[in-house]
Amino acid sequence: MSGHSKWSTIKHQKAANDQKRGQLFTKLAKAITIAAKEGGGDLETNFKLRLTMDRARQANMPKSNIERAIDKGAGQGGDDGLFEVVYEGFGPGQTAVIVEAVTDNKNRTSAEIKKMFDKMGGKFGQSGSVAFQFDRKGQILVEVKGDEEEQTLKLIDFGAEEVEKAGEFFEVLVQPDRLFELSKKITKEGFVVKQAELVYVAKNMLELKDEEKSRALKFLEALDDLDDVQNVFTNADL
User: Fold this and answer.
1) Which one, of 228, 232, 235, lies nearest residue 99 by Cα?
2) What pTM was computed for the model?
3) Residues 94 and 113 in one domain
4) Does the residue 60 lie in any domain?
């Protein structure tokens, strides 16, 4: 498989244990508002909103916060002029990095992310500078319970393209347009889905020396901690 699972698992565990709940809720509220702005507030027809709301519920985000974010996106109270933006660049050891952000000020966000690249020994890149090294995929994190081999075979039978154990989860990859369908099917069959989202998966992983791994991980975590950043993807084999 891609080896992408290590950073994905670190991110998920970090979010689950994150004590900065206010910052996490703010990021989730932005993502919900954007999803509602793009596709409306109906969960039956807006898959992106449903996925984002699932993430919010798993983080124990208050229902009132979720509803307020949906109302903003649906045009009730204004959406704060939020936009989705994607940045690319190189991290320590020439690792490829893609950053997804939601912002009301592109210039501010761009400056903050560029500053972090410079500060942590990376290089801020132009659009397209590293994107060709990744594939867009749907990713589902499924709890590991019982016989691992049996679970893996079932997930493949359900239509998963790739399945890899990553700590306490199976990381399941599927084509983006099948993410919602497969997530529902896996849940219906009794599996516990912890997260389902669209991700960038590196086509080839880049091996790093121990010192570079440490620097790369600190860099990725620093990017992920920025208020406007929603997701960070890399080809670093951590």
Assistant:
1) 232
2) 0.82
3) yes
4) yes
Q: What letter represents residue 204's amino acid?
A: N
The alpha helices in the chain, defined as continuous H runs, are 5-17, 21-39, 47-58, 63-73, 106-119, 148-158, 179-188, 210-225
The string over 146-177, giving b where at least 16 C-beta atoms fall within 10 Å of a residue's C-beta and e elsewhere, is: eeeeebbebbeebebebbebbeebbbbbbeee
**Tokens matching residue 83:** 């936009």
Rounded Cα gap, residues 124 and 211, in angstroms: 21
As given in the structure block, the two tokens for residue 231 are 């997701």
The pLDDT tens digits of the residues spanning 153-204 come to 999 999 999 998 887 889 999 999 898 889 889 988 889 888 888 899 999 9
| pLDDT cut 90: percent of the chain above it | 34
**Cα–Cα distance measured from residue 131 to residue 18, given in angstroms and rounded to the nearest whole number:** 29
Give the domain extent around 187. 135-202
